[in-house]
Amino acid sequence: MSNTILKKSAVALALSLAFSGYAAAETHIAVVNQDSSEAVEFGNNMYIEQNGVFSWAYADQYGEGNDTSLLQFDDWQEAYTYVTGDFNFVEGEQSGFWNIFDSEATGNDNMLTSLQEGDMNSSEVFLTGNGNSAYVEQAGAGNTASIDLTGDYNAADISQFGDSNWASFQIEGSDNEFSAYQSGSLNEAGYFNATGDANVFIADQEGDGNVGGVVGANGDMNEVYVQQFGSANIFIAENLAGDENLVDVYQDGASNEFLIQPIQGDLNEIAVQQEGNTNVVEAATGMVGNYNTVDAHQNGDNNYAVFATEGDDHIISMSQRGDDNIAVAESYGAYNDIHIQSRGDNNFNGVALIGADNEASSRQYGDANTAEIVIAGDDNEVDSRQDGDSNTLLAYSYDAGTTSGNDLQSEQTGDINLIDTIIGGNDNLIAFVQEGNNNIIAGDEGSFIVGGNGGSVDIQQVGDNNVVTGGQFSDTNTMSVYQQGDYNVATVVQY
Asked: What letter does residue 378 receive in the DSSP assignment?
């Protein structure tokens, strides 16, 4: 049986006995135990004040120079404190109905403060080590705050205003700083299993039903900032491993989600900003490697963005403005850059780069556009721009062993334009430009295929309803097609 259960059982018994004997009188129970060694320079100080009906205070102090103050006002307050060590400071103040304060301080020079106002709030603080500080302030009903610090010179601050909010810190290490501010109802904030040094966690939540939490941190100087305004927003980072990681989250609206899986490596940085409703940002595998950077911005409703990086020096940026947009970015290797930008509704941007020194850019302005790019190999560059509605670009390269040094550019301006491409081989330079409506670049039997070494493809179509079909398979081939006007058809096949 836990100490808390034993304490509650004791107070229940004591209060029942007191009530049976003094039904009409105020009943307060205070139990104080203090012990300091002989010939100490500083003794312990204890101050307890209670009024109302049925209040209970239990305080132990063992050591030198400890100072405990317990103030309980109104009805049915409970306070428990246990201090062992030297020069610890404990302050508890409660008003309202049936608030519970439970604390332990083991070590030296620890400072613990708990202020509760309202009904049925609970504050639980445990400090083990030296020079730790904890501050809890709660106003409202049914709020719960829990702090458990093990180490030296840690600082934890929880402030909750509203009803049924929950905040918890469980830290093992030194020089950590954690704070949580919640205003509203049914909000949750927590940081668990932090085992490194100099970690910083800040959660600022205003609204109802917001969740911000980190589970696990193994490393040094990790920083997480969370700001949530609105209702039912969620941020969860499960595991952080490595040094100097930074996660910065801003959510304003309703039902936005940012879910991240383990981060492994050094100097990783993630920044996510969501404004609107039901937007989602998640990491498929998290970030594995060093010096990775991710920047995701969503403004609108029902947008979805996912990223996954593995390797070194990746930079991924995703920006979505509008509704129902999807962005997918993946990079495996080193020195990859991915930039995705969407302005409009129902756009899809998909990019995957596998290899080293790859660059990709996908920008879409309009509605219902699709850009799906997969590159496997080295030193590839992709630049895709689509302005208008219902444009489609499909570019693939499946041969990771032979695909290197390719340069693909695609520009579509207008509506319902299509580019369908499969790329294979080395050192290909490809450029597509389509201006107008209903223009198509595709293969005569399904896909436009480019292969070989040193080839060059340049296709431009200006007008409406133009078609280019063909493929290029051998080495050192050159294709150039220019069509202007309407309903032009060109077929080029080179082997």
From this structure: B
Give residue for tokens 């107008």: 436
For 410-431, the pLDDT digits (tens) are 999 999 999 998 887 778 888 9
Dig out the tokens for 336 from the structure. 């990859």
Round to whole Å and give the CA distance between 163 and 58: 27
Q: Which candidate, 392, 391, 357, 349, places its Cα nearest to that of 374? A: 349
DSSP one-letter string for 78-112: EEEEEEEEES-EEEEEEEEES-EEEEEEEEES-EE
Using only the alpha carbons of the chain, give its radius of gyration. 32
In 10 A of CB 13, how many CB atoms? 10
- Summarize the confidence of residues 280-284 as an average pLDDT: 88
Among 63-67, 269-273, 470-474, 488-492, name the most confident range.
Answer: 63-67
Nearest to 386 by CA among 349, 428, 331: 349
Cα(203)–Cα(211) distance, integer angstroms: 9
Give dist(CA 473, CA 106) in Å, integer: 75
pTM of the predicted protein model:
0.85
Assigned domain for 38 exists: yes
Tell me the per-residue pLDDT of 200-217, one tens digit each, with 9 for 90 and over.
888 898 999 999 888 877
CB 40 within 8 A of CB 62: no
Full residue range of the structural domain in which residue 26 is found: 1-151
Residue 440: per-residue pLDDT: 94
CB 133 within 8 A of CB 110: yes
Number of domains in the chain: 1
DSSP state of 22: -
130 near 105, Cβ under 8 Å?
Answer: no
Residue 205 lies in a domain: no
327: nearest Cα among 318, 336, 317? 318
| CA nearest neighbour of 293 among 357, 235, 337 | 337
Closest among 137, 145, 247, 260 to 202, alpha carbons compared: 247
Nearest residue to 238 via CA among 199, 175, 176, 282: 282
- For residue 71, being part of any structural domain is answered with yes
- pLDDT tens across 142-188, in order? 999 999 999 999 999 999 999 999 999 988 888 888 899 999 999 99
